[in-house]
Specification:
By secondary structure, the chain is of the alpha/beta class. The chain is 35% helix and 17% strand.
């Protein structure tokens, strides 16, 4: 059997989809499983165990719905038996239709009835990992034995003593650490953990934000700005080397957690019951939790402008969480 999967469009979701791939391996032993993923996420997707071949898709190289359709059409000669569509967008469903694969499976969405052959309702009030696996379960009429979120990194495990990786970024402003709060937390951490180095990660466009955090920071000699300096594979290596990762609700949180690195996640607008890193071991979640609007799951804070749920996070709770991993920090 040959299976083709359209993976999700965000880093955290790609990581969480590893449980879906694992379920397919369980349900269809011996099947060849290939996947389509956004070009910029290929470095993470290639770490998902069980994938045979990865096909990268770029909107820049194939713009518009015409580009989506032409990309999907190229798979007709491959003779796949099943197509699983994890995103819910019209364009991903159109790509599925273009492949000509006889069985095209995805979640019910407007238009899915003529683009997909088998569409199913997404379960409510469950974790996103469980949403993805449910698609395979509903189609196969089987139940997965284990929901396993783990990426495959061949390099031997190694940890740099007293190294904290920090990510205060997020695509959504409601999940991003406000600048003044970030500065205050950083100074508190560098003055509390005097033998610890702090490395900030992020994309190239986030490098300036991190430099703003560093302005007038104490102990600048123990700070590093890696924003824009790592590709996805390098980022995985950096996260694996860390003693602990302190991060907002974002893709790197899921990546670190899937690699087995202790991860402390600072939640704002997001709903941790749906989108927190899935592996409980080595995971701590911190949220303010005293605002009526939490969690709003919106990308911008309409009520306060600057997300108060992030601004009011208990800094001493962050320190206490880090102390469990930095006893001699």
């Amino acid at each position: 059997m040959k299976i083709l999967i359209r993976l999700p469009n965000w880093l955290g979701d790609v990581v969480m989809s590893s449980a879906f791939v694992n379920a397919l391996k369980e349900f269809y032993p011996g099947a060849i499983i290939d996947a389509i993923v956004k070009k910029e996420l290929a470095g993470a997707a290639c770490l998902i165990p069980g994938l045979n071949k990865l096909h990268s898709f770029s909107k820049k190289e194939r713009p518009g719905l015409k580009g989506v359709y032409s990309f999907g059409k190229q798979f007709r000669a491959e003779k796949y038996d099943l197509f699983f569509n994890l995103p819910e967008s019209f364009s991903s469903q159109l790509m599925a239709k273009a492949t000509g694969i006889k069985k095209r499976v995805g979640f019910s969405k407007e238009g899915s009835f003529f683009l997909l052959t088998n569409s199913y309702k997404k379960p409510k009030n469950v974790h996103r990992v469980e949403e993805y696996v449910s698609l395979a379960e509903q189609f196969s009429q089987k139940t997965a034995n284990v929901y396993h979120v783990k990426l495959d990194v061949e390099k031997p495990e190694r940890m740099v003593k007293n190294l904290v990786i920090i990510n205060f970024n997020s695509e959504a402003s409601s999940r991003r650490m406000p600048l003044d709060k970030a500065k205050h937390i950083l100074n508190l951490l560098t003055n509390t953990f005097k033998n610890t180095r702090f490395t900030f990660i992020g994309s190239k466009k986030e490098a300036d934000f991190i430099e703003e955090i560093f302005q007038h920071a104490d102990h600048r000699d123990r700070l590093e700005n890696f924003a824009g300096k790592t590709d996805m594979a390098n980022l995985a290596d950096v996260l694996r080397e860390a003693t602990v990762v302190l991060t907002t609700d974002s893709g790197p949180a899921h990546l670190a957690n899937s690699l087995g690195t202790p991860t402390i996640v600072l939640f704002g607008a997001g709903n941790e019951r749906n989108t927190a890193p899935y592996n409980k071991q080595g995971l701590q979640i911190i949220r303010y939790g005293k605002l009526d609007c939490e969690p709003c799951v919106k990308n911008t804070c309409k009520l306060y402008g600057i997300p108060k749920c992030m601004q009011l996070l208990d800094e001493m709770q962050i320190v206490a969480a880090l102390k469990s991993y930095l006893p001699n920090g």
